[in-house]
Amino acid sequence: MQKNRIRVARVEGIVLSRRDWGEADRLITLLSPELGKLRVVAPGARKPSSRKSGHLEIFSRGRFVLARGRTFDKITQAETIDYFPTLRDSLERVSAGYLMTEMADRFLQEEDPNALVYDLLYEALGWLEAGEPVALVTRFFELRMLGYVGYQPQLYRCQHCDRGLQPVDQFFDLREGGVLCPTCRPEGGELTPLSLNGLKVLRLLQGAEWSVVRGLRLDDTLADALGDLLHRYTLFQLERELSSVRFIDDLRGSG
Ligand SMILES: [Zn+2]
Question: How far away, in angstroms, is 194 Cα from ligand 1 center?
Fold first, then answer.
């Protein structure tokens, strides 16, 4: 919290991550619509007697009372609004949830509120909870999220010659953050092929409402190709691998 802020704050938030801290505490990363990403300590949350700990699970949305602390602010009260119990029963859905919370955590700076990302994350967790198609929820989240933090993939004009794209297979350039037409494809350049179908799906994910997107039927090959493209683009922007992506790859490799 900023130095001049009041001593006690009431915030709504989603738990993005948590880890052990000190003897019996937890360090929690919260995403609040008004205050942005916050790192706060939950004193004593690892004690069996703690009443707070059940309200501090990853993905949970809740209301929290924060008090000013020296290094980190402290959670003095916590109350869950949404726990997403069904999501937690499926390893596939939990993995998708991890990917989304990790992306939000990595892309957002502390105390830089982004209500669009907050609402998107909350909705996407709700869709996972409701049994919506996991791959579509994840790709939808990734594309929207990238746009909300300033890395909107450019899908309508060639990033080199600026011409409108023709209905043929294209290429995606991570460095340019968008599509290159076949004519502009540099020899030996590091580009990811993007099929015409793939481009159409990405445009829909980027621009259409979820009520439209959820009706899409993706075959596995295309779903994997788009997932791979968006992970590579995310990695390029973050300059670091997401641990949840590695986890999902391991899960699929061993499945
Ligand atoms: Zn071009």
Answer: 14
Q: Residue 156 Cα, ligand 1 centroid: separation in angstroms?
A: 11
The segment(s) of the chain belonging to CATH 1.20.1440.120 are 87-253
Rounded Cα distance, 107 and 242, in Å: 11
Q: From ligand 1's centre to the CA of 182, what distance in Å?
A: 7
| pLDDT at position 190 over 90 | no
Pairwise CA distance, residues 110 & 39, whole Å: 8
Ligand 1: centre distance to CA 160 (Å): 5
CB atoms within 10 A of CB 171: 19
- Mean pLDDT for the stretch of residues 28-42: 95
What is the whole-number distance in angstroms between the Cα of residue 159 and the centre of ligand 1?
7
87-253: CATH topology is de novo design (two linked rop proteins) (1.20.1440)
In the sheet that holds 178-180, the strands lie side by side as 178-180, 170-173, 192-194
Distance 172 CA to ligand 1 centre (A): 11
Stretch(es) of the chain classified as CATH 2.40.50.140: 8-82
CATH classification code of 8-82: 2.40.50.140
| pLDDT tens sequence across 99-130 | 999 999 999 999 899 999 999 999 999 999 99
pLDDT tens digits, residue range 119-169?
999 999 999 999 999 999 999 999 999 999 999 999 999 999 999 999 999
